[in-house]
Amino acid sequence: VIYHGDTIKKWKEKGYHESPEHENFRQQLATPVEDAQEILATRFPMPRYVDCVHGDSQSRFLFAKVNPSQTHNSVYGYGGPAGAGGAAVLTSHSKSSWTI
What we know:
Low-confidence stretches: none
Largest sheet: 2 strands, parallel
Mean pLDDT: 79
Number of strands: 2
Strand content: 5-15%
Number of helices: 3
């Protein structure tokens, strides 16, 4: 799974990855793809390859798998009413792929 958060999505929309002065950004986007291609070529059975961007259907699928307790039925924490003090859901778009 390669996930591009909201900030990366905006930078790609602005074309920073195509700009010569942002070569480092382009390399950082290419590295996980190259790593994934190597993994796909060497593992059996072949893992599923998912490259998703913040807000698309694949990212919603990813978050449902990573945090299945947070669904449309449990918006307020485990299905309770608003303000019931459900468990906090922590997500971060600022972590690098190496940290996760």
